[in-house]
Each structure stands twice: as structure tokens, then as C-alpha cells.
Amino acid sequence: MAPAPASESLPQSARRLSVAESFQWAEEVTRRSRSNFRWSFFTLDRQRRQAMEALYSFMRLTDDLGDDEGLSISERTEQLIAWRKMLDVALAGESQPHPLMPALVDTISRYKIPAKYLHDVITGVEMDLHPVQLKSWAELEKYAYHVAGAVGLCCIHIWGFQEDQAQARALACGRAMQYTNILRDVNSDLALGRVYLPEELLRQHRYSLDDLRQRAYTAPFVSAMREFAEVTRANYREAALLVSELEPPGRPILRVMLDTYQTLLERIEHAEFRVFEQRIRVPVWQKLWFVGRTFLPGGFRRT
């Protein structure tokens, strides 16, 4: 079987894939990605790892449908509508030609993931189809729910969770990671007409949207970014409480994700928020170290 690349819009299989073949397809999509999440999947047992690969592939393909520059906005909208319908029809039990659907349906059914969360993710991608300029922290939190929080809720169903508070803390985890991405991607998002830093935050620090569009690296900009980073850290503190509320098999993957993204935040802060001139990353060796140390006796955790 030759899997389609992750960027291909709504690829169709020449024949319906078996569940096992579909999981192989999702594994290949994940392998080709450069996501910070990919390495953390290796901390899971085979069944949960395959489920995470199916879930990740759904998220990746949904993003790609929204970002396909070869299509007009109206065409991307139609693709996302078709993607929603394909998901619903597959969940209703009807076989679909998309190679991901058998694995995705198996994952949703096995781990009792509410389909609403996947639809909410599609809504988040639809929110990015047009220029974005968030006015308030409330608008940012709503956006972060759709593109990250809903993903976190899907994940904890795969990992297993024990406490009622787990869902609220999964949302905090999604916010923390999404806010970190926003800090890192200020420059590239501007190029796409997207401003996720709340206008009320910028205004409070006497930094205008025009300043931002001109990539003005000034004291007010750094001050605004510092406050944004502090809010991000508060969400990480709440997210850290989620670890003990997961079933044991799901704890290492969350530790790796938190370590990776908190390290990214630290590197952004260490660079004094010079995000206009570089895209700050966590080195692969460090991501691998975070994964590897979970296998050491007793493991390691961030304090």
C-alpha cells in the first residue's frame, strides 16, 4: 500500500482499506510530519499509539484542507463541509473511500470519543479561512478551544482519565500549547493575515496593530509578549495537575508533551521574544531525550 502524503486533499483509496491497513496509512502520515507531538507517541503501548496516529492524521488533514493555497476560500470551505459529511457518514457505519476513516472510526468507537470534539476542530479550521484579528482574551480562549482544547479532550479519552477535573485541565493544556505556538508563530501568522495576540493586550501595552504589522520590535512589544507568556505559564501550571489524573499508561506522553512545549516557551523567552527574525524550535535531540527518560527507572518529571 502506498499512503498518500499528509498534504493531499481528501485522498481516495482505489479500494476500501481494512482497519489494519488504515492504521498503517495513519502511521505513515504521522511519520512524514514534523510535529512536536510525533515523538511523544512512542511512550504509548501499540494500541494507544495507533489511536493517537489516527487522531493526529485527522487533525493534520483537517488543517491541510483549510490551508490548501491551491484552492480558493470557497473551495476550501466546500472541502471542509465534505470532510464533515464524510466523518458523519463513516461514524454512522457506512464505508468511506478515504484511507483514514476505518482507523479513525475504530479509534472513536474503542475510546468513546465524542464526535462533537472532532467537529469542533473542523470549526476551528474554518475560523482560520478568513483574516483573523482577535479583539479580546475571551475570543482567544474560544479559538484555542476549537484548535487545541478539543484535541486535548480527544486525547485524554485515548490515554484514560480518572477525575472529573481532568477535562478542565485538558482544556488548560490545550490553551498552554496553543498560546506557545502563537508566541512562536507571530511572524508567519502575520504573513497569513492572522493576529492571535488579543488587541486588548496590545493596547494595554501601548503597542498598536500597525506596529505589529510593521514587525516593530520595541519595549512595548516585549512587555506584551511577557504578559502573554505569563498567562501561558499559568495554563501550564494547571495542565501539570492533569498528569496524576490520567491512567498510568497515559502519563508519560503528557509529560513529554509538557516538557517539549514548556521548553519551547523557555527558548522563546530566552531569545527575548525575537520572533520576527527567527522561528524558534526545540532541537530533535532534546525531544528524543524527553521521550527516552520516561523509560528510565522511576522516569523523570518536571517540577
TrEMBL record:
The keyword Transcription regulation does not apply. Keywords: Transferase. InterPro entries: Isoprenoid_synthase_dom_sf, Squ/phyt_synthse, Squalene/phytoene_synthase_CS, Trans_IPPS_bact-type, Trans_IPPS_HH. GO terms for biological process: carotenoid biosynthetic process. GO terms for molecular function: geranylgeranyl diphosphate synthase activity; squalene synthase [NAD(P)H] activity. The keyword Transferase applies. PANTHER family: BIFUNCTIONAL LYCOPENE CYCLASE/PHYTOENE SYNTHASE (PTHR31480). This is All-trans-phytoene synthase.
